[in-house]
Amino acid sequence: MVVKVFGPDCGNPKRVLVCLIEKGVEFETVPLDLFKGENRAPEFLKLQPFGSVPVIQDGDYTLFESRAIARYYAEKYKHQGTDLLGRTIEERGLVEQWLEVEAQSYNPPINDLARKIVVGPLRGLTPDPKLIKENEEKLGKVLDVYEERLSKSKYLAGDFFSLADLSHLPMTQYLVGKMEKEYLIRDRKNVSAWWNDMSSRPSWKKVVELWPGLY
Amino acid sequence: MVVKVFGPDCGNPKRVLVCLIEKGVEFETVPLDLFKGENRAPEFLKLQPFGSVPVIQDGDYTLFESRAIARYYAEKYKHQGTDLLGRTIEERGLVEQWLEVEAQSYNPPINDLARKIVVGPLRGLTPDPKLIKENEEKLGKVLDVYEERLSKSKYLAGDFFSLADLSHLPMTQYLVGKMEKEYLIRDRKNVSAWWNDMSSRPSWKKVVELWPGLY
Fold first, then answer.
1. pLDDT digit string (tens) for A90-106?
2. Closest approach of chain B CAs to the CA of A100, in angstroms?
3. Which terminus of chain A, N or C, has fewer Cβ atoms within 10 Å?
4. What is the per-residue pLDDT across B15-50, written as a single tens digit (0 to 9) for each?
5. What is the domain extent for residue A10?
6. CATH number for the domain including B139?
7. How far off is chain A from B210, nearest CA to CA, in Å?
8. Which sequence ranges form a coiled-coil region, renumbered to this chain (chains A, B) (predicted)?
9. What does B52-91 look like in DSSP terms, one character per residue?
10. Is B48 among the domain residues?
11. Which residue, among B104, B139, B142, B162, would best test binding to A if mutated, counting the most A CBs under 10 Å from its CB?
12. Facing B97 at nearest CB: one of A63, A99, A105
């Protein structure tokens, strides 16, 4: 049974795509045009009542929320492809800790920056330099903690690439690309080495090549 | 070895406390006064570099982020106390899905409301009725999805109480209590039954009794 991934061409679905590639799980993508409101169509709302992407269908099993989907495949195929959860319950705990930091502290200021720098101007809005500066500073503080952490271990949860690192890929790509804020990464030696390492993985290069998409 | 929980008297730490009680894990609490900035002290920042609560210390293992800690104990003591993760990988997937909904969609508008309704006035700020209304509407839309979901199963991830439900306890208590927004729960039949059921659990009653705290 081939896994169906709905809505591939933006950040959150790419978290799922790169995970499936790392795990060697066969999948197909089902594009959804958010600008045309296809995510608000009644058929789609039956799969995802909030109208968000991604959603997966795997036989008669449906799941949404990108980090929940990534955890599901990392666990279902624990012994296939890259192990993304750590070898022990304690390592898994640290993977979950940094996955939560990504979701709660890293992602929100990037999302806010994206809205102000890229999406706003597309809709004719003038970016507010004060709000941009505030979010850059907020993100910078998070990256300072990462810089210190990555001076002690190669990846966030330890010396192994995990779901915690993987989960940073889509929005960091956006940050250093279309948002033109590469300096936030480049000016931090350990963060920069971490980003160069994980963005060079064949799985991520494939996602960027096949789905250049919105970001 | 008794688990130490730092910073019990606010919402996120209570997510950990109720989980530990459900799992029958012995613990002690280490109070931190956030208003005095004890969470910014160098010793504390060694445990939690962002200066947030909760943090746990379990022997020489340290972990932060409330939902990561809750997952860790739910997995470590899988066969002790209440099973909070589901019986299969598919059930765990649904637990993770609704746990993400709580973290990403339910919690943020309640946090915003808390800042505007309770914390702001404590600091002498006048609440902005427009912003309060916007967040109430945002939260109402999430609760509409819950109402529909809970018409099909007793709890969010299925017919079993899980980490996904448990994770809603602290902020919902705050919402119906100090924030005086009980109508958002009461006016929805299934959400109301769900809240009455889970807030009556001995574990939660114990948390409310022992740590009435800030909220």
1. 999 999 999 999 999 99
2. 7
3. N
4. 999 999 999 999 999 999 888 999 999 999 999 999
5. 3-81
6. 1.20.1050.10
7. 27
8. none
9. -S-EEEETTEEEESHHHHHHHHHHHTTTSSS--S-SSHHH
10. yes
11. B104
12. A63
